[in-house]
Amino acid sequence: MKSYHITTLNEFIIRRQADFPYAKGELSRLLSHLGIAAKIVSKKINKAGLVDILGESGEVNVQGEEQVKLDLFADQTFISALKASGEVCGFVTEENSEIITFEDNLSRDGKYIFLMDPLDGSSNVDVNVSVGTIFGIYRRVTQRGHLAGQEDFLQEGSRMVAAGYVIYGSSTMLVYTTGKGVNGFTLDPSIGEFCLSHPDIRMPETGTIYSINEGHYARFPDGVKRYIKYCQEIDPPTSRPYTSRYIGSLVADFHRNLLKGGIFLYPSTAKAPSGKLRLAYECNPIAFIAEQAGGKASDGEKRTLDQKPTSLHQRTPYYVGSLRMVELLEEFLQQNS
Ligand code: P6P
User: Fold this and answer.
1) Is the peptide bond before 285 cis (omega within 30 degrees of 0)?
2) Which stretches of 149-295 are assigned E, i.e. beta strand?
3) Do 153 and 250 belong to one domain?
């Protein structure tokens, strides 16, 4: 009988540690703790309709957004798990205005800092739409043995050592990169393990899906308006095969485009001149994944991963997806500049 070997996340992490000759297992331990937290959050989300964890917490986050109970649950779950790893000295999350530093001696000596949106698109949970966790991991720039500092969290995205997301959808998947390609793991609830289901993910060089909230159309830059009309062209011979798909949950919209090809657009608008999405813990990690899978991410002009953050929660216009589609969008934007 053909033996069917399942590669679990932990097996894969240990095996891939060999990619880093000087690795002593710290990043591996961190990633394993991340997987545990993702399983805990997934279980809570999957029964959210049955326990008192839906709805708003009555709190507001630094963005001025209503915090739902699951936001806070996910935030605390990941912070606790990664503190327990002993490899992380500090944290920035969407739910906390300031940096979180771990003061115990083990954590002070931690080599890594962690940025995350613990539950992106969380307002969708109440209506059973996929949501996600987005994370980025850097080596600290401050001296080990001391508390993490602000400068640890204002590094360009190109300095990330790992990044990824968890998508809580029809199944729960963890997709991550350590700079050597992108791999996807699907949670098998029957054994409680993330199992390698999407090895070496490659983003199609082009595609037919464009994802944008056209409700903001009137406020878009002219180049974006022209790109949308280009996609919608129906008169032969230039008629286009495009289709519009927009879930309103970044991780879900990006994950579909990663597998099928497509472009996600969140432009600046008159109301939000810097766009809506946060550079540090939404755009940068997704951009790292996109580039590692052969795609592209920019603010319309500059590579997202090259942007130097000046504040923890700063926003940026964001265009991410299949290489040729992002390149064409950038041409439309530059036409009228
Ligand atoms: P809009 C969710 O609130 C989020 O941060 C992303 O997940 C999503 O892509 C975007 O905002 C949706 O924003 O303005 O279309 O509702």
Assistant:
1) no
2) 160-168, 172-177, 182-188, 193-198, 209-211, 243-244, 263-266
3) no
CB distance 249 to ligand 1 below 6 Å = yes
Look at residue 228 and tell me whether its pLDDT is greater than 60: yes
195 vs 174: CA distance, rounded Å: 9
Q: Is 300 in the pocket of ligand 1 (CB under 6 A)?
A: no
Q: Is 120 in the pocket of ligand 1 (CB under 6 A)?
A: yes
Give 110 Cα–ligand 1 centroid separation in angstroms. Answer: 33
- Mention every residue, 6+ apart, whose C-beta is less than 8 A from residue 236: none
Residue-wise burial string across 23-43, b where 16 or more C-beta atoms lie within 10 A, e elsewhere: eeebbbebbbbbbbbbbebbe
Q: Which residue among 198, 230, 257 closes a domain?
A: 198
Q: Does 7 have pLDDT greater than 90?
A: yes
Q: Which residue among 123, 266, 283, 316 is best mutated to probe the pocket of ligand 1, counting the most ligand atoms within 8 A of its Cβ?
A: 266
Are 222 and 191 members of one domain? no
For residue 124, name the pLDDT band (cuts at 50, 70, 90): confident
d(CA 134, CA 125): 16
Q: What is the pLDDT of residues 139-190, one digit of tens each?
A: 999 999 999 999 999 999 999 999 999 999 999 999 999 999 999 999 999 9
Q: What was the pLDDT predicted at 2?
A: 65
pLDDT of residue 43 exceeding 90, the answer is yes
98 and 214 in one domain? no
Domain residues for the domain of 315 are 209-334
Max CA distance (Å), the chain? 67
Please tell me the pTM assigned to this model. Answer: 0.93
Ligand 1 in contact with 250 (CB < 6 A)? yes
CB 305 within 8 A of CB 316: no
Question: Which atom number of ligand 1 is nearest to the Cα of residue 120?
Answer: 7
